[in-house]
Design goal:
Shape: globular
Strand order of the largest sheet: 1-3
Number of domains: 2
Distance between the termini: 61 Å
Order of helices and strands: HHEHEEEHHEEHHHEEEEHHHH
Helix content: 25-40%
Number of helices: 12
Oligomer: single chain
Length: 406
């Protein structure tokens, strides 16, 4: 009897305490305010693999677990916090290729500068006079939808000779694949080269390609897909460490790839906002949608949740000449110095959340407002920029409001 009374007393004190504590917890963010989370329709087994990939994506490496010896970041998540855009602190520097004949520094530090190092090692220095570009890490969400598109879908929007006369070309980046690459039925072989679709200049063919490069070039972690430590300019190549290779197993790499493939697409916020609706029409009237193509539909996929889905990334995945202000003097694959892949615009309104409360837009993070980003568009985008410039201040804000709801 006494024990029963004691239990009642404890419960009587505990419930009010729990209720009062709830007042101190912030409410969970709405789904449209976060980029993390898996696509709808995954099986329980797939959800488990997604979670395993999430853990691996955010696992922090140390010198004892294979970090470095030279590196840029200690985890994937440190460059893509909350799966969003990176910050200038995590901006990458690629160097060594000033034309499309290839990178002359691949055996001497290229293509990426490792600007940090574990104890007893020195960070890499940029070679003097070498061509280079700064790349701010992009957001990760919705990548599986882009990966599911066929080469034929991407090529349908390419117009290398501007046959239609609209001043917009759009060409793929044709790349020599890595040794572990296994082409899929939706990928076409162009004389031993394949179409890139990921990265600032579309220099990665698949998410596996992108992930393997990130492990070895960003973190200095080897895998069965890339067994050599990254080379260092004017250093021992490859620089040795004390951790046996591979430093991350193939299953972990594949879990990260699955995680990236099954991250949800950003959810549009305030879809009924009148200014955003008007801004979308202004965006389309200025022909911004010629490169930032609004809508795509995936074909059948090996992941059922990605099959036959219509999504809205606002990209064509093609390279475009963006003019002199965005010419960094650096190339990747067949992409020329002023050519950049059209970046997806979905999720741009949430970029501040992962960038410390302020925008750092464009490939190198130089633009701190959406307006600033638009104003350096040139080349094939010059006409659209000029149309934007001619808008009233009210209409400019409507267009920007639309982009911030993406």
């Amino acid at each position: 009897m006494k024990n029963g009374l004691l239990i009642v007393v404890i419960i009587g004190f505990t419930i009010p305490l729990l209720i009062s504590c709830e007042k101190f917890f912030p409410p969970a963010p709405a789904d449209d305010e976060v980029l993390d989370g898996f696509v709808e329709g995954l099986s329980s087994e797939q959800q488990a693999q997604f979670l395993a990939g999430d853990v691996a994506f955010n696992s922090v490496f140390t010198a004892e677990t294979g970090l470095g010896p030279s590196f840029v970041a200690t985890s994937c998540g440190s460059c893509h916090p909350g799966d969003g855009k990176g910050h200038p602190f995590t901006t990458l520097i690629r160097f060594g290729q000033g034309d499309t004949t290839g990178n002359s520094y691949l055996d001497n530090g290229g293509p990426q500068l490792q600007n940090r190092a574990i104890p007893a090692h020195s960070p890499e220095q940029l070679p003097p006079g070498v061509p280079f570009a700064k790349f701010t890490p992009p957001a990760n969400t919705g990548l599986g939808f882009l990966a599911a598109l066929t080469d034929a879908q991407i090529l349908a929007n390419a117009d290398p000779n501007d046959v239609n006369g609209d001043g917009i070309s759009g060409i793929p980046n044709y790349l020599t694949p890595p040794s572990y690459f296994q082409p899929q039925s939706y990928q076409q072989n162009f004389g031993g080269k394949y179409i890139g679709r990921f990265g600032k200049k579309a220099a990665a063919i698949t998410l596996l390609h992108q992930t393997v490069n990130a492990y070895v070039q960003d973190i200095g972690v080897t895998s069965e897909f890339a067994m050599s430590e990254p080379s260092i300019y004017n250093g021992t190549n490859p620089t040795p460490d004390n951790v046996p290779d591979p430093e991350v197993d193939g299953a972990t790499v594949q879990n990260v790839v699955f995680y990236l493939r099954t991250l949800k697409a950003p959810i549009q916020r305030s879809p009924d906002n009148a200014d955003a609706i008007a801004g979308k029409q202004l965006f389309l009237n200025a022909n911004c949608g010629k490169c930032h193509i609004p809508q795509w539909t995936t074909p059948q996929s090996d992941i059922a949740a990605l099959s036959n889905k219509t999504f809205y990334p606002y990209t064509d995945l093609l390279l475009h000449d963006m003019g002199s202000e965005l010419d960094d003097g650096y190339t990747e694959g067949s992409a020329k110095t002023s050519e950049w892949r059209t970046p997806p615009l979905w999720g741009i309104g949430l970029a501040k959340n992962s960038q410390g409360g302020q925008y750092f837009l464009l490939h190198d993070g130089r633009a701190i407002t959406i307006h600033d980003a638009i104003m350096v568009h040139g080349g094939e985008a010059a006409n659209s920029k000029n149309q934007y410039k001619q808008l009233s201040e009210t209409d400019k804000q409507r267009l920007i409001k639309f982009l911030e709801t993406r």
